[in-house]
Amino acid sequence: MTLGYFIYKIILVVVVFAITMVIAMYSTYAERKVAGFLQDRLGPNRAGWFGILQPVADAVKLFMKEETIPSVSNKTLFIVGPALSLLTACMTGVVIPWGTSLSFFGENYSLQIADVNIGILYIFGVVSIGLYGIMIGGWASNNKYSLLGAIRASSQMISYEVAMGLAIIALIMTTGTLSVGEIAAQQHGWHWNILIQPLGALIFIVCAFAETNRAPFDLPECEQELVGGYHTEYSSMKMGFYLFAEYINMFISATVISTFYFGGYNMPFIGRFVTDPNLLALCGVAFLFAKIFFGIFFFMWVRWTLPRFRYDQLMNLGWKVLIPLSILNIVLTGAWMMRHEILNVFIK
Amino acid sequence: MITTYLFYFLSFLAIMFALMVVISKNPVHSVLYLVLTFFTIAGHYVLLNAQFLAVVHIIVYAGAIMVLFLFVIMLMNLNKETEPHKTPWLKFSAAIAAGLMLIVLVGSLKGAETIIATNPFNGNIGLIENLGQCLFKDFLLPFEVSSILLLVAMVGAVMLGKKSIK
Fold first, then answer.
1. Radius of gyration of chain B (CA)
2. d(CA A213, CA A211)
3. For a tag on chain B, would you pick the N or C end, based on fewer CB atoms within 10 A?
4. Cβ within 8 Å of residue B136, ≥6 positions away
5. How far apart are CA A116 and CA A124, in angstroms?
6. Residues of chain A contacting B28 with CB distance shorter than 8 Å
7. CATH 1.20.210.10 is the classification of domain B1-80
8. Around Cβ B69, how many Cβ atoms within 10 Å?
9. What percent of chain A has pLDDT over 90?
10. CB-nearest partner of A129 from B58, B70, B128
11. Is A124 part of the contact surface with chain B (CB cutoff 8 Å)?
């Protein structure tokens, strides 16, 4: 490991972090614009051209607000909660392959920060830790609504993690690898995993909605029943951290879905038009981000279209529909992979 | 060697967090320290080049089991008033029992011989390919039997949790 390589990785980390932050920031703007569009109104249009400075104005507002820490709360954990949420939200980007690799002066620079051989499980592990931020924050507020919101969030996330894990198992069976980089590389041309695993992709997307606490699964923060859910007691930038973490999670979910099922940085037929490898890699990055932006738009589209579930409906969907379906998906995938052996048994 | 320093650092943290689990008065703090202990143990797995075990350790213990623990403890709302009052007599006997246990442990560790591994240590043993080969080829039957055991436990839990229909 040379010094240049080390510096390159640090630059990549900073760039990925910066892009994540900017996208999360402008997701708040995009969400209001999409909501406005779907409800036939204008959305924010006062700050700057087409309201483009709205996120900056919001950030300034959040920073200037008075910061209150309830006197009955557990002060340390009250601060740890939002920090942990934001930290875990930013950790997943490390194993995502943002593109193939750039080559300068005979050296190859991969656009993936760390190609761990268990990348999928790493993502899964980080998602499962992300829950602690919400749980700690909700409990430390010492407020019944916050606690209820935190408990709803954790039971919902644990339930949907099971179905998500089972959907991923079927994906691992067909790809034969746990490395995210390899999964993305396998999907060149039209070999997108959604065509091989349509049911698994559907289950994964539904679970991603539940994992990010987005509507129609946003029961942890439903305003009518729980005031604000787990962040009822939070004000100023701590509340901003929670909201920001939600938008980062949405961005990361869209990225993971595009990488696992929609070909990642691959685009069919692009090799015919672009031959220069560096340009091809940059095109791949652009395609990945186009898919991610569509994914984020899809998240918002669903939020402003579907009403919220009831809590028992949510649990029934998770345990009685998605888990049996994902087990069926595993069985079907296994049978398809062993079809020659099974046919041989019947022919003889 | 950086791995040696990391080993001592992680061991120090693991022991410190494990002590904090016992010492801290608030049960929620205890659970959170236990989660941190699991993280340091996962760090040890990474040092042994067993990334798969490390991540599964985090997913299963920190991500699922401890969340359920935290869940139950948060709902029970344990505080000073609900803390069971123990007599000095009980504390005294508990201290003696734990002290005897410590003596037994120290004595057995002192008399133990250091084990020399017959097979040379293979750095790749913890990687997922080798683990899969081991579990699904060499130890297939025990593996499947233990999965049936877990299934039985699951069915039992569902049976106990079910409302009796009359």
1. 21
2. 5
3. C
4. B143
5. 13
6. 77, 139
7. no
8. 17
9. 5
10. B58
11. yes
Segments making up each domain of chain B, as ranges: 1-80, 127-166
**Tokens 């084990």 — which residue?**
B115
- What pTM value is reported for the model? 0.85
The pLDDT-based confidence of A317 (bands split at 50, 70, 90) is confident
User: Contact A336/A173 with Cβ under 8 angstroms?
Assistant: no
Q: How far apart are CA A98 and CA A255, in angstroms?
A: 9
The amino acid present at B93, given as its one-letter code, is S
3-state secondary structure chain A: CCHHHHHHHHHHHHHHHHHHHHHHHHHHHHHHHHHHHHCCCCCCCCCCHHHCCHHHHHHHHHHHCCCCCCCCCCHHHHHHHHHHHHHHHHHHHHHCEEEEEEEECCEEEEEECCCCCCHHHHHHHHHHHHHHHHHHHHHHCCCHHHHHHHHHHHHHHHHHHHHHHHHHHHHHHHHCCCCHHHHHHHCCCCCCHHHHCHHHHHHHHHHHHHHCCCCCCCHHHCHHHHCCHHHCCCCHHHHHHHHHHHHHHHHHHHHHHHHHHCCCCCCCCHHHHCCCHHHHHHHHHHHHHHHHHHHHHHHHHHHCCCCCCCHHHHHHHHHHHHHHHHHHHHHHHHHHHCHHHHHHHHHC
* Closest by Cβ to B128, choosing from A124, A147, A178: A178
Neighbour-count burial of B24, counting CB atoms closer than 10 A to its CB (0-12 exposed, 13-18 middle, 19+ buried): middle
Residue A9: closest CA among A88, A110, A102: A110
CA angle (A160, A161, A166) in 5-degree steps: 100
Residue pLDDT tens, chain B, 166 long: 788 888 899 999 999 999 999 888 888 888 889 999 999 999 988 888 888 888 888 888 888 888 888 888 887 766 666 667 778 888 889 999 999 999 999 988 887 777 776 666 666 766 778 888 888 888 899 999 999 999 999 899 888 888 766 5
Q: Does B48 touch chain A (CB under 8 A)?
A: no
**Rounded-to-integer distance, Cα A34 and Cα A292, Å:** 16
CA–CA dist A157, A139 (Å, integer): 17
Interface of B with A in 64-123 (CB under 8 A): 64, 67-68, 70-71, 74-75
